Amino acid sequence: MTRRVWNRGAVLLSLILALVLMAACGGGQAQPTPVPEKPETKATEAPPTEVQVEEPQLAKELHIYNWSDYIDPQIYEDFEKEYGVRIVEDTFASNEELLAKLQAGATGYDIIVPSDYMVEIMINEGLLAELDHKNIPNLVNIDPMFADPPYDPGMRHCVPYQWGTTGIGYNTEVFDEPPDSWAYLFDPELASQYAGKFTMLNDVRETLGAALKYLGYSLNTTNEKELMEARDLLIQQKQWVYAYDSEQFEDLLVADETVMAHGWSGDIFTAAAEDERIWYVIPKEGAVIWADNLCIPASSANKYTAEVFINYLLEPEVGAKITNYTWFASPNVAAAEFINPEILNEPAIYPPPEVIEKLEWIKDVGEATPLYERIWTEIKAAGP
Ligand code: N2P
User: Fold this and answer.
1) Which CATH architecture has domain 164-289+364-381?
2) How far is the CA of 265 from the centre of ligand 1 (A)?
3) Which residue's CA lies nearest to atom 6 of ligand 1?
4) Which of 149, 166, 165 is nearest to 295 (CA)?
5) Structure confidence at residue 171 as a pLDDT band (50, 70, 90)
């Protein structure tokens, strides 16, 4: 639909300007300057310009590139029923996979879900569109704590979707005490006891990050010596690792293939919801805190529809539906009253301030990125 906006506004504006000028020049005294009722138009001149404003139409389909198991599929169906837009989902397993896809020129995606540090990288590479906030009035529902993230000030490009931590999922029947230290995964004496029985995330920053934390370093270090130490530790650990996996680690725990998993809070808690033997712990040395975000690639042809969908996801009930399915924490404050209290009151999902203090955000390591990548490739290629 095309809405025509005639230039009545312009006429009104000139009238107001004229009146303001009159008042200013005449010190309040009325001046006899005639104000034309409408601009004179000479016969040869073009008629007053029309401003044409495109009223956006909804696309028929929206393509979302998401992490696996990261939304209640019912939400896609409800959105289609309400808006007539079919959602097509494709999944990725790491931020680096998502970045590589976009860098390779993939253009079919309308919504992507990168984590914090990757948002910053993507903004710098010009891969993200700027959001039109007036199409997303439900932004008011975002917790002020998440509304001005350092990686995307003022949410200019993205809207926080879910947040959580990266820790250790485990089978409570196998452990007398919770494995609340990275030592369970890295100390040769401890880790060897669980040989072939634990997984590590298939993720350069997360897995190097866990090793760095165990060694007492920042998981954003650019110090080559520290990074080499972490590399050696991971190569040593490899003999006890069942698999590097970011999509099935929770299922492997439930299936008794493993007894421990380096993994994301919500994924472990969804497993715990179906198998009471499973639980999750944030290692005492500290761990990763992260937030994933809904962003629109600069290449999307359906930006308006993507914004309408993002706004829909921010509805309080819909926001709660997401968290009630994923068991990750929600940045949507208005959703809280609809969130399962078991989730809301779980300190391992919404950690208390003293735990949050020990957590570290992954940051873009800039020029050290190729070094991280090289180390990761070396680890993956190492025997056994
Ligand atoms: C969902 C994975 C969450 C991604 N299965 C953590 N950034």
Assistant:
1) 3-Layer(aba) Sandwich (3.40)
2) 9
3) 264
4) 149
5) very high
